[in-house]
Amino acid sequence: SLPWDLDGKRVVISAGGTRESLDPVRYLGNRSSGRQGYALARIAAHRGADVTLVAAHTADLVTPAGVRLIKVGTAEELRTVVLAESDGADAVVMAAAVADFRPVNQAEHKIKKTDRDPEPVVLARNPDILAELVESRSAGKLAASLIVGFAAETGDATSSVLDHGRAKLARKGCDMLVVNAVGDGMAFEVEDNSGWLLGDDGTEERIDLGAKSLLASTLWDAVGRRLSDQ
Ligand code: C5P
Protein backbone atom coordinates (compact mmCIF):
# COMPACT_ATOMS: atom_id res chain seq x y z
CA SER A 1 0.00 0.00 0.00
CA LEU A 2 1.05 3.57 -0.58
CA PRO A 3 2.48 5.70 2.23
CA TRP A 4 0.16 8.33 3.73
CA ASP A 5 2.97 10.88 3.90
CA LEU A 6 1.13 13.72 2.13
CA ASP A 7 -1.76 13.72 4.60
CA GLY A 8 -3.01 17.28 5.08
CA LYS A 9 -0.67 18.71 2.43
CA ARG A 10 -2.22 20.98 -0.17
CA VAL A 11 -0.84 20.51 -3.67
CA VAL A 12 -1.60 22.22 -6.97
CA ILE A 13 -0.77 20.44 -10.22
CA SER A 14 -1.08 21.77 -13.76
CA ALA A 15 -1.53 19.32 -16.62
CA GLY A 16 -2.16 19.11 -20.35
CA GLY A 17 -1.51 21.49 -23.19
CA THR A 18 -2.87 25.02 -23.53
CA ARG A 19 -4.73 26.08 -26.68
CA GLU A 20 -4.31 29.57 -28.05
CA SER A 21 -7.21 30.76 -30.20
CA LEU A 22 -6.83 32.05 -33.75
CA ASP A 23 -10.59 32.38 -34.23
CA PRO A 24 -13.67 30.73 -32.67
CA VAL A 25 -12.86 27.34 -34.24
CA ARG A 26 -9.06 27.24 -34.62
CA TYR A 27 -6.16 27.26 -32.21
CA LEU A 28 -2.42 26.71 -31.77
CA GLY A 29 -1.85 23.74 -29.51
CA ASN A 30 0.65 21.05 -28.59
CA ARG A 31 0.87 17.28 -28.19
CA SER A 32 0.69 17.08 -24.40
CA SER A 33 -1.72 14.32 -23.30
CA GLY A 34 -1.88 15.39 -19.65
CA ARG A 35 -1.06 11.84 -18.53
CA GLN A 36 1.92 12.82 -16.38
CA GLY A 37 -0.04 15.54 -14.56
CA TYR A 38 -3.02 13.24 -13.98
CA ALA A 39 -0.70 10.51 -12.65
CA LEU A 40 0.81 13.05 -10.24
CA ALA A 41 -2.67 14.04 -9.07
CA ARG A 42 -3.82 10.45 -8.61
CA ILE A 43 -0.75 9.39 -6.60
CA ALA A 44 -0.80 12.53 -4.44
CA ALA A 45 -4.48 11.97 -3.60
CA HIS A 46 -3.77 8.31 -2.74
CA ARG A 47 -1.05 9.51 -0.39
CA GLY A 48 -3.44 11.79 1.46
CA ALA A 49 -2.90 15.17 -0.19
CA ASP A 50 -5.61 17.74 -0.86
CA VAL A 51 -5.18 18.00 -4.64
CA THR A 52 -6.22 20.72 -7.07
CA LEU A 53 -5.62 19.72 -10.69
CA VAL A 54 -5.61 22.58 -13.18
CA ALA A 55 -6.04 20.93 -16.56
CA ALA A 56 -5.67 22.44 -20.01
CA HIS A 57 -6.47 20.24 -23.02
CA THR A 58 -5.80 16.54 -22.38
CA ALA A 59 -6.53 13.16 -23.87
CA ASP A 60 -9.72 11.49 -22.59
CA LEU A 61 -8.54 10.83 -19.03
CA VAL A 62 -10.40 9.77 -15.89
CA THR A 63 -10.42 12.44 -13.18
CA PRO A 64 -8.73 10.77 -10.19
CA ALA A 65 -10.99 10.17 -7.18
CA GLY A 66 -10.96 12.92 -4.59
CA VAL A 67 -9.18 15.42 -6.83
CA ARG A 68 -10.58 18.91 -7.43
CA LEU A 69 -10.43 19.50 -11.19
CA ILE A 70 -10.40 22.98 -12.73
CA LYS A 71 -10.46 23.06 -16.54
CA VAL A 72 -8.76 25.88 -18.43
CA GLY A 73 -8.09 26.68 -22.09
CA THR A 74 -5.40 29.24 -22.74
CA ALA A 75 -2.09 29.98 -21.02
CA GLU A 76 -3.59 33.18 -19.63
CA GLU A 77 -6.46 31.24 -18.02
CA LEU A 78 -4.01 28.66 -16.65
CA ARG A 79 -1.92 31.51 -15.21
CA THR A 80 -4.90 33.14 -13.44
CA VAL A 81 -6.08 29.88 -11.87
CA VAL A 82 -2.63 28.54 -10.91
CA LEU A 83 -1.54 31.82 -9.28
CA ALA A 84 -4.79 32.04 -7.29
CA GLU A 85 -4.75 28.39 -6.19
CA SER A 86 -1.03 28.29 -5.31
CA ASP A 87 -1.11 30.75 -2.43
CA GLY A 88 -0.66 28.72 0.73
CA ALA A 89 0.11 25.49 -1.11
CA ASP A 90 2.72 23.03 0.15
CA ALA A 91 3.70 22.11 -3.39
CA VAL A 92 2.98 23.48 -6.85
CA VAL A 93 3.91 21.18 -9.72
CA MET A 94 3.87 22.67 -13.21
CA ALA A 95 3.46 19.64 -15.47
CA ALA A 96 1.41 21.51 -18.10
CA ALA A 97 2.79 22.22 -21.55
CA VAL A 98 2.15 25.95 -21.65
CA ALA A 99 2.24 27.64 -25.06
CA ASP A 100 5.16 30.06 -25.18
CA PHE A 101 3.36 32.21 -27.79
CA ARG A 102 -0.20 33.18 -28.67
CA PRO A 103 -1.62 34.81 -31.80
CA VAL A 104 -1.69 38.61 -31.38
CA ASN A 105 -5.14 38.75 -32.99
CA GLN A 106 -7.97 36.44 -32.04
CA ALA A 107 -10.60 36.91 -34.73
CA GLU A 108 -14.12 37.33 -33.44
CA HIS A 109 -15.53 35.46 -36.44
CA LYS A 110 -14.21 32.42 -38.28
CA ILE A 111 -11.43 33.44 -40.68
CA LYS A 112 -12.75 32.98 -44.21
CA LYS A 113 -10.99 31.30 -47.07
CA THR A 114 -10.55 33.75 -49.97
CA ASP A 115 -8.71 33.80 -53.29
CA ARG A 116 -6.05 36.02 -51.76
CA ASP A 117 -2.96 34.70 -49.95
CA PRO A 118 -3.60 34.13 -46.22
CA GLU A 119 -2.50 36.72 -43.69
CA PRO A 120 0.59 35.70 -41.69
CA VAL A 121 -0.03 34.72 -38.08
CA VAL A 122 1.72 37.18 -35.77
CA LEU A 123 2.62 35.84 -32.33
CA ALA A 124 3.09 37.47 -28.95
CA ARG A 125 5.03 36.04 -26.02
CA ASN A 126 3.01 34.36 -23.22
CA PRO A 127 3.94 34.81 -19.56
CA ASP A 128 6.20 32.13 -18.05
CA ILE A 129 3.95 30.97 -15.20
CA LEU A 130 6.62 28.90 -13.46
CA ALA A 131 9.02 31.85 -13.40
CA GLU A 132 6.20 34.09 -12.18
CA LEU A 133 5.39 31.72 -9.29
CA VAL A 134 9.04 31.86 -8.22
CA GLU A 135 9.19 35.67 -8.56
CA SER A 136 5.92 36.18 -6.66
CA ARG A 137 7.21 34.03 -3.82
CA SER A 138 10.53 35.94 -3.71
CA ALA A 139 8.58 39.20 -3.61
CA GLY A 140 6.60 37.90 -0.62
CA LYS A 141 3.34 37.97 -2.59
CA LEU A 142 2.86 34.19 -2.68
CA ALA A 143 3.30 31.52 -0.02
CA ALA A 144 4.23 28.17 -1.57
CA SER A 145 6.66 25.78 0.12
CA LEU A 146 7.88 23.94 -2.97
CA ILE A 147 7.69 24.94 -6.63
CA VAL A 148 8.43 22.16 -9.10
CA GLY A 149 8.92 22.50 -12.85
CA PHE A 150 9.07 20.05 -15.72
CA ALA A 151 11.34 20.27 -18.74
CA ALA A 152 11.37 18.24 -21.91
CA GLU A 153 14.88 18.13 -23.33
CA THR A 154 16.77 16.35 -26.06
CA GLY A 155 20.45 15.52 -25.78
CA ASP A 156 22.71 16.72 -28.57
CA ALA A 157 26.38 16.46 -29.47
CA THR A 158 27.53 19.13 -27.02
CA SER A 159 25.09 18.88 -24.11
CA SER A 160 23.24 16.01 -22.42
CA VAL A 161 19.66 16.05 -21.19
CA LEU A 162 21.09 16.34 -17.66
CA ASP A 163 23.21 19.40 -18.57
CA HIS A 164 20.18 21.11 -20.12
CA GLY A 165 18.19 20.27 -16.97
CA ARG A 166 20.79 21.71 -14.58
CA ALA A 167 20.89 24.93 -16.61
CA LYS A 168 17.10 25.20 -16.68
CA LEU A 169 16.75 24.58 -12.92
CA ALA A 170 19.15 27.48 -12.31
CA ARG A 171 17.46 29.74 -14.87
CA LYS A 172 13.90 29.12 -13.69
CA GLY A 173 14.82 29.38 -10.01
CA CYS A 174 12.37 26.66 -8.94
CA ASP A 175 13.10 24.24 -6.08
CA MET A 176 12.95 21.05 -8.12
CA LEU A 177 12.89 20.19 -11.80
CA VAL A 178 11.90 16.97 -13.53
CA VAL A 179 13.82 16.68 -16.78
CA ASN A 180 12.30 14.31 -19.30
CA ALA A 181 14.27 12.91 -22.20
CA VAL A 182 12.22 13.55 -25.35
CA GLY A 183 12.60 12.83 -29.04
CA ASP A 184 12.53 9.43 -30.76
CA GLY A 185 8.97 8.83 -29.57
CA MET A 186 9.81 9.42 -25.90
CA ALA A 187 7.55 11.13 -23.32
CA PHE A 188 4.85 12.74 -25.49
CA GLU A 189 1.61 10.83 -26.19
CA VAL A 190 3.05 7.64 -24.66
CA GLU A 191 2.57 5.84 -21.36
CA ASP A 192 6.18 5.84 -20.18
CA ASN A 193 8.62 8.50 -19.11
CA SER A 194 12.26 8.73 -18.04
CA GLY A 195 14.77 11.40 -17.05
CA TRP A 196 16.15 13.09 -13.95
CA LEU A 197 14.80 14.69 -10.82
CA LEU A 198 16.99 17.65 -9.89
CA GLY A 199 16.85 19.64 -6.64
CA ASP A 200 18.21 23.10 -5.95
CA ASP A 201 19.91 21.44 -2.95
CA GLY A 202 22.14 19.58 -5.44
CA THR A 203 20.30 16.26 -5.37
CA GLU A 204 20.16 14.45 -8.72
CA GLU A 205 18.06 11.33 -9.00
CA ARG A 206 17.90 9.25 -12.16
CA ILE A 207 14.37 8.19 -13.17
CA ASP A 208 14.52 5.01 -15.23
CA LEU A 209 12.10 4.47 -18.09
CA GLY A 210 8.80 3.43 -16.56
CA ALA A 211 5.13 4.26 -16.09
CA LYS A 212 4.24 7.91 -15.50
CA SER A 213 2.80 6.84 -12.13
CA LEU A 214 6.27 5.59 -11.15
CA LEU A 215 7.78 8.97 -11.96
CA ALA A 216 4.96 10.52 -9.93
CA SER A 217 5.81 8.35 -6.90
CA THR A 218 9.49 9.26 -7.16
CA LEU A 219 8.59 12.95 -7.26
CA TRP A 220 6.20 12.78 -4.28
CA ASP A 221 8.82 10.82 -2.30
CA ALA A 222 11.25 13.69 -2.87
CA VAL A 223 8.61 16.35 -2.14
CA GLY A 224 7.64 14.54 1.08
CA ARG A 225 11.29 14.46 2.17
CA ARG A 226 11.79 18.16 1.43
CA LEU A 227 8.58 19.16 3.24
CA SER A 228 9.52 17.17 6.35
CA ASP A 229 12.99 18.82 6.37
CA GLN A 230 11.49 22.32 6.38
O1 C5P B 1 11.19 26.69 -20.57
P1 C5P B 1 10.30 25.49 -20.68
O2 C5P B 1 9.03 25.74 -21.44
O3 C5P B 1 11.04 24.26 -21.15
O4 C5P B 1 9.90 25.16 -19.17
C1 C5P B 1 9.00 24.17 -18.86
C2 C5P B 1 8.41 24.43 -17.51
O5 C5P B 1 7.95 25.76 -17.42
C3 C5P B 1 7.22 23.55 -17.22
O6 C5P B 1 7.15 23.32 -15.82
C4 C5P B 1 6.06 24.42 -17.72
O7 C5P B 1 4.84 24.06 -17.09
C5 C5P B 1 6.54 25.81 -17.34
N1 C5P B 1 6.08 26.89 -18.23
C6 C5P B 1 5.28 27.88 -17.73
N2 C5P B 1 4.86 28.91 -18.55
C7 C5P B 1 5.25 28.97 -19.84
C8 C5P B 1 6.10 27.96 -20.35
C9 C5P B 1 6.48 26.94 -19.53
O8 C5P B 1 4.93 27.84 -16.56
N3 C5P B 1 4.84 29.98 -20.60
Automatic annotation (TrEMBL):
This is Coenzyme A biosynthesis bifunctional protein CoaBC. Residues 11-230 are annotated as: Phosphopantothenate--cysteine ligase. In the C-terminal section; belongs to the PPC synthetase family. Binds 1 FMN per subunit. It comes from Saccharopolyspora ipomoeae. CTP binds at residues 100, 110, 127-130, 150, 168, 172. The gene is coaBC. Keywords: Decarboxylase, Flavoprotein, FMN, Ligase, Lyase, Magnesium, Metal-binding, Multifunctional enzyme. GO terms for molecular function: phosphopantothenate--cysteine ligase activity; phosphopantothenoylcysteine decarboxylase activity. Its EC number is 4.1.1.36, 6.3.2.5. It catalyses: N-[(R)-4-phosphopantothenoyl]-L-cysteine + H(+) = (R)-4'-phosphopantetheine + CO2; (R)-4'-phosphopantothenate + L-cysteine + CTP = N-[(R)-4-phosphopantothenoyl]-L-cysteine + CMP + diphosphate + H(+).
